[in-house]
C-alpha cells in the first residue's frame, strides 16, 4: 500500500509499504479516513526536527475505522469508528509510574511519525489501549483533531486559571486556535496574535466566542484590557516570541511555552522571584487529556470542523504542504498564508 515516507530533508514521496496485520492479541489494524498535518510534520520535512529517524512514514493525528483485530480483542469489531492516540508509553519506566508518561523513557524509537512509522497511509497497526471510540455523528476530519486538542488540554492544565485573567495566545496556527478554545471552555477570554494578515483572517472565523485576533502583542494588550500591567496568561505556540511575551507578562503572570524551535531565550532570574512570574512548558497528552479532548469534540463544545480549512487526498500531499509554507520542489519554507488545519484522506 502507499504511504507518505520521509527520507531526508525536503525528500518525501508516496512509497510502497507492506499492509499490516494483527500479530499480538491486543493488536488492532485501523483503516484511516482522516490524518491531520501537524507542525511537527512541517519541521521534519524542512529538516528542523532532530528526533526524526528516516526513512519513516509521517503522520500522527488520525481517525478511522477498525479493519482487523487481534485474538484477544473482544470490545472492538471491524467498522467501529476510532481515533488513535499516537503517544506511546510503556507504563513501567520511572517517568510513566511517576505520572510523566508523555516523557516515557522508551519513547525514542516508538514515537509515531517521528521514530516509528506513522499514519499517512491507508492502514495503521496499533494496540487496543491507544484507541478511543467516537460516534457516527462526528466527522472523521473533526475526530482527527483530538490529538492536537489533547495537547492543548494538557497544557492548560499546567496553568492556574481565573475567569478574570487577561490572556493571549501567540501564533494563529491550528495549535494557537485550539489553545484559545481550551482556555475558553475554562472561562478565560482573550486574543490570538498572528502577524500574517491572510492567516489572521482565516483563523478569526475559527476562534471561540469572546476571543479576537490581533496583529501583535501590543495590539492584543489593548484588545484584552491588559493596560500597563500586562497579561496574566500567555500561551506561546510559535517558539519565537518567548522573550517578548515575558516582557509583557504581569507580575504573578504565567507563560506557557509550547512552541518547538525558535531562538534561545534570555531571562533575568529576578522576574521569577521579585515579579513572581512563572514559565512552564508542556508537550503531548497526559492525565486523561486525550479522552477529555475527544469529549469536547463529540459534545460540540469545541467545533473542530471550523478549524479544518482544507481537505486533500494523500496523493495531493505536495499541494497540501505547499499551502502550509513547505515548498518541496525548491526546498523552501515560508509562513503559511490562507490555510489553517489541513487534513489528508488516503
From TrEMBL:
It holds the Pfam family ADH_N. GO terms for molecular function: oxidoreductase activity; zinc ion binding. It comes from the Bacteria. Its cofactor is Zn(2+). Keywords: Metal-binding, Oxidoreductase, Zinc. The keyword Manganese does not apply. Residues 7-344 form the Enoyl reductase (ER) domain. Gene3D superfamilies: Medium-chain alcohol dehydrogenases, catalytic domain, NAD(P)-binding Rossmann-like Domain. This is Threonine dehydrogenase-like Zn-dependent dehydrogenase. It comes from Nocardia tenerifensis. The lineage of its organism: Bacteria, Bacillati, Actinomycetota, Actinomycetes, Mycobacteriales.
Amino acid at each position: 500500500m502507499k504511504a507518505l515516507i520521509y527520507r531526508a530533508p525536503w525528500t518525501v514521496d508516496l512509497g510502497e509499504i507492506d499492509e499490516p496485520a494483527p500479530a499480538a492479541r491486543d493488536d488492532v489494524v485501523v483503516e484511516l479516513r482522516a490524518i491531520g498535518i501537524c507542525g511537527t510534520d512541517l519541521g521534519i520535512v524542512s529538516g528542523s526536527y532532530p528526533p526524526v529517524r528516516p526513512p519513516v512514514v509521517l503522520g500522527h493525528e488520525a481517525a478511522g475505522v477498525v479493519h482487523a483485530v487481534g485474538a484477544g480483542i473482544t470490545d472492538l469489531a471491524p467498522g467501529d469508528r476510532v481515533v488513535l492516540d499516537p503517544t506511546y508509553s510503556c507504563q513501567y519506566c520511572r517517568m510513566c509510574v511517576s505520572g510523566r508518561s508523555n516523557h516515557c523513557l522508551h519513547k525514542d524509537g516508538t514515537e509515531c511519525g517521528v521514530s516509528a512509522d506513522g499514519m499517512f497511509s491507508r492502514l495503521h497497526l496499533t494496540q487496543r489501549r491507544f484507541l478511543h471510540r467516537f460516534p457516527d455523528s462526528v466527522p472523521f476530519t473533526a475526530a482527527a483533531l483530538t490529538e492536537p486538542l489533547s495537547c492543548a488540554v494538557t497544557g492548560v492544565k499546567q496553568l492556574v486559571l481565573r475567569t478574570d485573567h487577561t490572556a493571549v495566545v501567540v501564533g494563529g496556527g491550528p495549535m494557537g486556535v485550539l489553545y484559545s478554545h481550551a482556555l475558553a471552555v475554562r472561562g478565560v477570554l482573550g486574543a490570538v496574535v498572528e502577524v500574517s494578515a491572510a492567516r489572521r483572517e482565516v483563523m478569526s472565523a475559527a476562534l471561540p466566542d469572546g476571543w479576537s485576533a490581533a496583529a501583535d502583542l501590543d495590539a492584543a494588550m489593548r484588545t484584552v484590557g491588559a493596560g500597563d500591567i500586562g497579561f496574566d496568561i500567555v500561551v506561546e505556540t510559535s517558539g519565537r516570541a518567548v522573550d517578548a511575551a515575558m516582557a509583557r507578562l504581569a507580575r504573578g503572570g504565567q507563560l506557557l511555552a509550547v512552541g518547538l524551535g525558535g531562538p534561545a531565550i534570555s531571562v533575568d532570574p529576578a522576574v521569577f522571584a521579585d515579579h513572581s512570574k512563572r514559565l512552564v512548558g508542556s508537550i503531548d497528552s497526559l492525565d486523561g487529556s486525550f479522552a477529555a479532548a475527544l469529549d469536547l469534540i463529540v459534545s460540540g463544545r469545541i467545533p473542530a470542523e471550523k478549524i479544518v480549512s482544507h481537505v486533500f487526498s494523500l496523493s495531493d500531499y505536495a499541494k497540501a504542504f505547499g499551502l502550509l509554507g513547505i515548498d518541496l520542489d525548491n526546498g523552501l519554507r515560508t509562513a503559511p498564508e490562507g490555510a489553517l488545519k489541513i487534513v489528508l484522506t488516503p
